[in-house]
């Protein structure tokens, strides 16, 4: 997977200050750093820690849109998205041939999800299913962000700040095991082990039919199992099990099993 940029996680962020190794700092409440980019929106361009970034001071009770100087990134915040007035920085980079962007500070809690538009210019391949993933530096984990690709523009709805990487997810989930189980209390159900390496399983779009009857599809997130439940399900000696499993990027796999 894409490797994260470690430098930005060594910065110490607060609503009003940005510090790097206690060697340099920015007072984000003033206009004494960088240079003015959009005075009406209180936005300034600054160079910090080797990164060129657009800083915007956000009023708590106002909706805001931040647009990068090259117009490739737009970030939309609703009013009252934060708990106080705060400063937001956005900048773009590249990781192992994939585009990435950051909406900082990653340590700031957010009350509402926000909306990002990212125009893919140099990296675009029309055959790829591009998706946005949030990177958690503390757990070294990538989490899928709801993503829609319209033309060459990525539309994403994150629910936390941080670093985001865009790379394709073209692979459907895999199915490893199918079992018909009768519990001690007499009810029967079907368990299906399924794994998706990147975006994760969307169990609401997945479907299971047993002997031609569609049931309720649930998902065990700890065990990575789809579960077929039907109040009138009585297993036969040989059961036809049809499975459509879909991931959060829209990739689906259809398989038929006999158990």
Describe this structure in words.
This protein is an all-beta fold and 259 residues long. Helices cover 0% and strands 52% of the residues. The protein is built from no helices and 24 strands. The strands form five sheets. Strands 4-5-6-9-10-16-12-13 form an eight-stranded antiparallel β-sheet, with no helix packed on it. Strands 7-8-11-15-14 form a five-stranded antiparallel β-sheet, with no helix packed on it. Strand 21 and strand 22 form a beta hairpin. The radius of gyration is 23 Å and the shape is elongated. The protein starts with 10 loop residues before the first strand and ends with a strand.
Number of strands: 24
Shape: elongated
Q: Fraction of residues in helices?
A: under 10%
Distance between the termini: 37 Å
Question: Tags for this entry?
Answer:
disordered N terminus; 5-stranded antiparallel beta sheet; mainly beta; 8-stranded antiparallel beta sheet; 24 strands
Describe the structure in brief.
The protein is an all-beta fold and 259 residues long. The protein is 0% helix and 52% strand. The radius of gyration is 23 Å and the shape is elongated.
């Amino acid at each position: 997977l894409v490797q994260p940029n470690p430098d930005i996680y060594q910065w110490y962020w607060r609503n009003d200050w940005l510090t790097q190794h206690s060697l340099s700092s920015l007072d984000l409440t003033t206009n004494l750093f960088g240079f003015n980019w959009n005075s009406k929106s209180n936005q300034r361009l600054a160079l910090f820690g080797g990164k060129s970034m657009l800083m915007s001071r956000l009023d708590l009770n106002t909706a805001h849109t931040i647009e990068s100087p090259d117009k490739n990134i737009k970030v939309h915040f609703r009013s009252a998205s934060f708990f106080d007035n705060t400063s937001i920085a956005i900048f773009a980079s590249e990781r192992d041939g994939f585009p990435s962007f950051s909406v900082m500070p990653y340590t700031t809690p957010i009350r509402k999800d926000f909306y990002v538009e990212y125009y893919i210019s140099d990296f675009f391949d029309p055959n790829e299913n591009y998706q946005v993933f949030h990177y958690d530096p503390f757990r070294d984990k990538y989490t899928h962000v709801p993503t829609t690709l319209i033309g060459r523009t990525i539309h994403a709805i994150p629910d936390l700040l941080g670093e985001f990487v865009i790379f394709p997810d073209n692979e459907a989930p895999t199915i490893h095991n199918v079992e018909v189980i009768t519990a001690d209390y007499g009810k029967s159900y079907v368990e299906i082990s399924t794994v998706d390496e990147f975006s994760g399983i969307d169990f609401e779009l997945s479907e299971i039919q047993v002997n031609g009857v569609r049931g309720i599809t649930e998902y065990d997130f700890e065990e990575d199992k789809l579960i077929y439940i039907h109040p009138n399900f009585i297993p036969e000696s040989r059961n036809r099990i049809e499975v459509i499993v879909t991931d959060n990027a829209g990739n689906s796999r259809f398989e038929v099993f006999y158990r």
